[in-house]
Design brief:
Elements (H helix, E strand, L loop, with lengths): L1 E6 L3 H10 L5 E7 L3 H9 L8 H6 L5 E4 L6 H10 L3 E4 L7 H14 L3 E3 L7 H11 L6 E9 L18 H16 L5 E9 L9 E8 L4 E7 L9 E5 L2 E5 L6 E6 L10 E3 L2 E3 L10 E4 L10 H10 L9 H20 L3 E2 L3
Parallel strand pairs: 1-2, 1-3, 3-4, 4-5, 6-9
Antiparallel strand pairs: 6-10, 7-8, 7-16, 8-9, 10-11, 11-12, 12-15, 13-14
Length: 348
């Protein structure tokens, strides 16, 4: 059993502690936070607390440090931990630049410590359902995927509104959406990207974004996050040559529909507004079939179990650092595209 200290007793930090109760391979040895009030709250919740970060680093029984602090502090905390001989789990985004991430990886290699980024939304059930449909070719050749996350509460009133701390929705959410699409499209390369960032709420940082990716197999992917939408669009929408899948929300409402007959079978025109159409006429001839979403089993605690197995040399890391680097490179290109208002072409 490995002893772990959580650094950062905030929303994500406490969520980690809740999950770690189900991971027998890890024992939570304590908590550290720079905020005295949060440190007092951790103590009141029954956790051993450390008065300063150096005390964490000096504790020889601690093998893992879990960094769950604002984005701008990840690099320094992680490097100090690995230099002190600790393995590190780090919240996403790992840093706000590929250069800073390279610096972290250089220290990881030098100290021979394991460093892994918590890309927890790979374990979202709706993503795993989409992945299963894609991997099993249930919709035929997929040519279009849309993934949206939308809310109406704006940006949380904390460090996420501060540009110097790595706030904004690109760092908060796009890092997840990109990571999942790259996992889905493993083996394929991104050939172009266009991004449009929203600043409608008047913050220093983006309050939403739309990103369009093109892959080397001509697939188009739209990633979108908005924080001021009172009516939401489906979270996932995937179109293939012989089917379409829709997942409305995190609660997994949705279905997928497949073609059972001819795609271009002649249709009877229908009235549509002030005109009529055959192209958009509904299918009423039994040429499509409706299916429930596929069943999947996910357990985000497998992330922590894998980290321990990686430390012990029993497994390869489930979240690889070259995957994270690719995501961070694309995030830099998102900001470049938005700044220049142009499509960025490359082959990564």
């Amino acid at each position: 059993m490995k002893k772990l200290v959580l650094v950062g007793y905030g929303g994500m930090g406490t969520r980690h502690l809740g999950r770690l109760k189900n991971v027998k391979e890890i024992e939570v040895a304590g908590v550290y936070d720079i905020d005295p009030e949060k440190l007092a709250a951790a103590h009141q919740d029954g956790y051993q607390t450390y008065s300063n970060y150096q005390a964490v680093l000096d504790d020889q029984e601690v093998e893992i440090v879990l960094v769950a602090t604002p984005n701008d502090s990840h690099k320094e905390l992680s490097i100090k931990a690995m230099t002190a001989g600790k393995h590190v789990i780090c919240e996403k985004p790992v840093t706000t630049s590929t250069k800073d991430f390279k610096d972290i990886l250089e220290v990881a290699a030098k100290t021979k410590r394991c460093f892994m980024v918590d890309q927890n939304r790979r374990w979202d059930e709706n993503f795993q359902m989409i992945k299963k449909l894609y991997d099993t070719n249930a919709l035929g050749r997929v040519y279009d995927i849309e993934n949206r996350v939308q809310g109406s509460r704006g940006i949380p009133q904390d460090w996420r509104q501060n540009i110097e701390q790595g706030g904004g929705m690109v760092y908060d959410w796009c890092v997840h959406l990109l990571d999942r699409i790259l996992v889905l499209k493993a083996g394929h390369r991104v050939t172009s990207l266009y991004a449009d960032l929203s600043g409608a709420l008047g913050h220093q940082v983006d309050d939403g974004f739309r990103v369009i990716l093109r892959f080397d197999d001509e697939m188009r992917v739209l990633l979108e996050v908005q924080t001021r939408n009172f009516i939401k669009l489906p979270e996932w929408y995937m179109s293939g040559a012989t089917g379409t899948a829709e997942i409305e929300d995190f609660e997994l409402h949705g279905e997928y529909v497949t073609l059972e007959g001819e795609l271009t079978k002649e249709a009877i025109p229908v009235e549509a507004g002030a005109g009529f159409t055959k192209t958009m006429a509904p299918r009423t001839d039994g040429s499509v079939k409706h299916h429930p979403l596929p069943q999947v089993q996910t357990d985000v605690c497998d992330f922590y179990r894998n980290f321990v197995a990686w430390i012990d040399g029993k497994e390869e890391p489930i979240v690889k650092n070259d995957e994270v680097m690719r995501t961070m490179y694309l995030i830099e290109k998102i900001f470049e595209s938005a700044r220049k208002n142009e499509v960025i072409k490359f082959n990564i």
